[in-house]
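Async update (no meeting this week)

Hi team, since we skipped the sync, here's where things stand on the single-chain job. The sequence we agreed to prioritize is pasted below, unchanged from the tracker. I ran it this morning and attached the output directly underneath so nobody has to dig for it. Comments welcome in thread, and please keep replies under the output.
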Amino acid sequence: MSRSPPTDIFKEEKEDADPVLKSLEDEYFGHDDITFHPEHNTIKTGSLQRLVERLTWHRDGDEIFTLTFLLTYRSFTDALELVSLLEQRFVAQMPREIAALQRGDQRRVVYRIKIQLATQQRVYSVIRIWVRGGNMERE
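Output:
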C-alpha cells in the first residue's frame, strides 16, 4: 500500500508554490509505486521507474538521494537499464492534452519550462554526477 508523499518532502514545495505547476503535478505525476518514510520524509521504497523519476524530479534535486542512488543502483538494476530510463525521462514529451493547447497558454508554458526543461536539466546533472563520481559499471 503506497501513500502520497508528505508535502514537505521537497524543500521548495511551499504555500506560495505556483498553483499551475501544482495542478499539473497532481494531474500528471502519480505517487503509486513509491512510499515515503513518515517520520524522516525520505523515500522508503519504490519501483525503479519511480525512483528514476524522483532522481530526475523537475524541482530541485535531492543531493543525498542522488548520491545514494548512484552508489547503490547496481543492487537492483544495471547501467544499461538506468541509461535507458534516463533517456526516456530526457526525451519525454508533453502529455497530448497539454501539447494541444495554444503556444501561449499558461499551462503549456509552465509544463514546458518548469517540468520538461527542468527535468532535462536534472537528467543532465545526474549523468554528470554519475560520470564524475566513477560509479559507472566497467564492461
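Quick observations from my side:
The domain at 19-30+51-133 is CATH 1.20.870.10 (Son of sevenless (SoS) protein; Chain S, domain 1).
Strands lie at 34-37, 42-46.
Reply here if anything looks off.
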